[in-house]
Design a protein that fits this description.
flat; two-stranded parallel sheet; two-stranded antiparallel sheet
Length: 219
């Protein structure tokens, strides 16, 4: 009976958390609806009877930033922060991390990004389905190029990074025209131990001209 009571208590707590989050989202001022698609992240790796499920509300800056120059993007975000500080824990400023996306001519073009799961041991893929993609053709010569990937690193259970990388490398055994082999690196998702949630951080990804290519969020 005590086990059943504890289980009911946990279910009640989780339902209350969901209701509280819904209430928070509904309370956002309608005047900033254009600001954001709002998502919540559960910051607890493990839930138990005592867990309250700490929540972070991340707001995206699509309208302020996407396909615009990074300087205009930052200025627009700063303006929103000044106008609606209550949405951002009343902070006075953001820390901006501006990074140019990798291009085929950049060093490291031959690396495949393995998006890890939050456990930092197994591969989850960008969409959480275990699929890993490489954005360029693989060229043995200037006239002999072909598409590689995608690779499924979830075979009923997600593969570890080493297992996934070996499968990928085995499928592309030849060096390219520059003498480089396919390599892997691990990319850790927001909310993992290596990339914890930071509500004061906004990551901005641009192309070589400084145009924002992904939707920034404060996370």
């Amino acid at each position: 009976a005590s086990s059943s009571t504890a289980s009911n208590t946990v279910s009640t707590m989780k339902a209350a958390q969901r209701l509280a989050t819904t209430a928070l989202l509904c309370a956002l001022p309608t005047s900033i609806d254009a600001l954001a698609k709002v998502e919540t992240r559960n910051l607890d790796a493990v839930e138990d009877d005592a867990s309250r499920g700490l929540m972070h509300v991340a707001i995206d800056f699509r309208d302020e930033c996407l396909h615009k120059h990074k300087d205009d993007c930052i200025a627009a975000i700063d303006e929103k922060l000044a106008m609606y500080p209550e949405l951002f824990d009343h902070r006075e400023s953001f820390s901006y991390e501006v990074n140019k996306i990798r291009e085929k001519t950049d060093a490291g073009y031959n690396y495949v990004s393995l998006r890890m799961n939050a456990d930092e041991l197994t591969v989850g893929g960008l969409l959480g389905d275990g699929m890993i993609w490489y954005p360029y053709e693989w060229c043995l010569t200037t006239e002999d190029c072909y598409t590689i990937g995608p690779w499924d690193c979830d075979v009923g259970i997600p593969l570890k990074a080493e297992e996934c990388c070996k499968m990928i490398q085995d499928s592309v055994p030849s060096a390219d025209l520059n003498g480089n082999n396919l390599e892997c690196y691990n990319e850790f998702p927001v909310g993992s131990a290596s990339n914890p949630v930071n509500p004061g951080r906004v990551c901005i990804h641009t192309d070589a001209a400084g145009i924002v290519v992904h939707i920034p969020k404060n996370e």
